[in-house]
Amino acid sequence: MQSDMKFYSTSKSSSPVSFKEAVVSSLPKDGGLYFPTSIPTFPSSFLREISSMKLWEIGFQIMRPYCEGDIPSDTLQSILEDTFCFDIPLNNVHDQIHSLELFHGPTFAFKDVGARFLARCLAYFQKDENQEVTILVATSGDTGGAVATGFHNIPGVRVVVLYPTGKVSDLQERQMTTLGGNITALEVSGDFDDCQRMVKEAFLDRSINDKIKLSSANSINIARWLPQSIYYFVPFQQPEMLGRKIAVCVPSGNYGNITAGLLAKKSGLPIHRFIAASNANDIVPRYLKSGSYEPKPTVATISNAMDVSLPSNYVRLQELCGEEYQNIIKEVSGGAMHDAENKETMKHVYQQHDYLMDPHSAIGYGILSEEVQQDEIGVYLSTAHYCKFKDVVESAIGESITIPSFADTLFEKEKKSFAIGNSLEELKDFLLHR
Ligand SMILES: *Cc1c(COP(=O)(O)O)cnc(C)c1O
What we know:
Layout: E1 7-9, H1 19-25, E2 34-36, H2 45-49, H3 55-67, H4 73-83, E3 90-94, E4 97-101, H5 111-126, E5 133-138, H6 142-151, E6 157-164, H7 170-177, E7 183-188, H8 192-204, H9 206-209, E8 213-215, H10 222-225, E9 245-251, H11 256-266, E10 273-278, H12 283-290, H13 314-321, H14 325-331, E11 332-336, H15 339-353, H16 361-371, E12 376-382, H17 390-397, H18 405-408, E13 418-420, H19 424-433
Parallel strand pairs: 4-12, 5-6, 5-8, 6-7, 7-13, 9-10, 9-12, 10-11
Antiparallel strand pairs: 1-2, 3-4
């Protein structure tokens, strides 16, 4: 197979690499992020065909040009069929407001898409290697479950997830600790920053790397990033959406999801405009409104998967829109919602429209409702299922909620985790001797 597609580093001081190398290495050594050397466009006839296509079939057309040098077509097809083992419906909440429900996957969050695709790509690249690879992940909640579940039972790969004890939701903890098999959960006595530091230190430690092959399932890996552009096609599967002005609002933290949407637009998807929605960590929306960039420390909110002050995918936004403020705001505007208003929004939508939202999706709904124009159709991305944030949702709506039966089964399984302290020594001991 031959392909001209390569991936360059956004820092531009190392040479472009193949899809396989970009996936396996995750990050270029020069501190940038990988980005495709060209963005393939699809023929306009494609949009008229997608209404009857399955999600994996749409995904195949989008992903093939990126992967074709390294993954044969029939393998790519099965990787995508496995990735999209769940539906992504578009739900009309009321009037012109639609929710793109990305939370019907195994861990009830949109990260399932990228995590499953990456896991299957790595499994394919790993199949001729004889040394097992260990994926180390630090998580504050959502990523750990998606990665662990995505890699569960994948041959040749072991996953070790580090999470801060007592600081993730019950359901998130269950998703990491009940899988067993090739997945191990380490319950660290410390906070998320400790977990992240330990993982970084492990990658730099000679005595660990001499003995085992470490890899990361970093959220900026292109195999997690690229497939996220596939579900932006879903609204356009409804023929009446073609020709309308579609505004898409994305609850954002690291800006991986929204930049994947911008990539879909560059490849020819006629999204009218994007709205980046944040919580109190609103440096980017403020910049988009005012043109001035004022960094400030991260604060904790009830939408904690979006508690990011410096989005790591910002450089990809610049690759897609250009670095000039004037060019960026042609494509994306921004808005922010704080916790009190977020809770009001969850309650209001539940009472008025009988629709439950998690605290991340609620920000997408809230900002979209403020910003959407009369002549537009609004779509916001629902990034997680409300049951993952049961306590927050219950306190917002003032009622108790029942966990749906598909999630309930998690509580019947046995929780297994290893408690460790927050030092590299303890992590090393675990990695080398267990
Ligand atoms: C990760 C996450 C986000 C933020 O997505 P980014 O791609 O980092 O912008 C939003 N909502 C939920 C539920 C998440 O898990």
